From TrEMBL:
Name of the featured protein: Response regulator
4-aspartylphosphate PTM sites in chain numbering: D61
UniProt-listed PANTHER family: TWO-COMPONENT RESPONSE REGULATOR (PTHR43214)
PROSITE patterns: RESPONSE_REGULATORY (PS50110)
Record has Signal as a keyword: no
Response regulatory domain boundaries: 11-125
UniProt lineage: Bacteria, Bacillati, Actinomycetota, Actinomycetes, Streptosporangiales
């Protein structure tokens, strides 16, 4: 993936069959200096076949005309090391949880304006977990209290490392440098510690993966 830090510009691709929304987003982003729309498609398969180059963030509509499985769409993109922000008309905390658990970096309902969307794009680009404000409180309250929220990148490194890979191999699998992978694992351990589940060793990380049913 292109390093956005080199240019200061976040590139975005959109997967949505709402042409009006995409045209509106394109017009809006024309005036936003740090975010640029570089790809658009009606399905995930179309995006992967036509995108000029992988964008920093993929905006993914939850319900597409091809009736593809939303969880499957997120997992397909995450396996390709893409950062995903799901957008939807559904104001469902349960659906938001499913998308985040599948590896999405955020979930935003479509009743927000484009300015709010751009802010969530920036958060996902920075590897933060971005949730619609009205869903966030209930979503967090409904989660298991001892299950930390991991970013897609933290999850990818954790799963690779806990599967038995060396740190170097896990870093390569997640598409990052070993030093970055080590930082992600330290952040994961810190989150488990704060959740009341201290985790120090590779075996303990593997146990947390099994306990929490983490998959990509």
């Amino acid at each position: 993936m292109r390093d956005m830090r080199q240019t200061g510009v976040i590139t975005v691709s959109v997967v949505d069959d709402d042409r009006m929304l995409i045209e509106g987003l394109a017009a809006w982003l024309a005036g936003v200096p740090d975010v640029r729309l570089t790809g658009r498609a009606a399905t995930v398969a179309e995006l992967l076949g036509t995108e000029p180059s992988p964008a920093d963030v993929v905006l993914l509509d939850l319900l597409l005309a091809d009736r593809s499985d939303p969880v499957g769409n997120v997992r397909t993109l995450v396996r390709l090391r893409r950062r995903v922000l799901v957008v939807s008309v559904l104001t469902s905390g349960d659906m938001a949880r499913q998308m985040i658990d599948a590896g999405a970096g955020g979930y935003l309902t479509k009743d927000h304006d484009l300015a709010a969307l751009v802010e969530k794009i920036r958060e996902v680009a920075k590897e933060e977990v971005a949730i619609s404000p009205e869903l966030a409180l209930g979503w967090l309250a409904d989660r298991d209290g001892d299950r930390p929220i991991l970013s897609p990148q933290e999850r990818a490194v954790l799963l690779a490392y806990a599967s038995g890979m060396t740190l170097t191999a896990a870093a390569r699998s997640a598409g990052v440098q070993p030093g970055t992978a080590k930082n992600y694992l330290e952040r994961v351990k810190d989150k488990y510690r704060k959740a009341g589940r201290p985790t120090y060793t590779k075996l303990e990380l593997a146990a947390r993966v099994r306990e929490d049913g983490l998959t990509i």
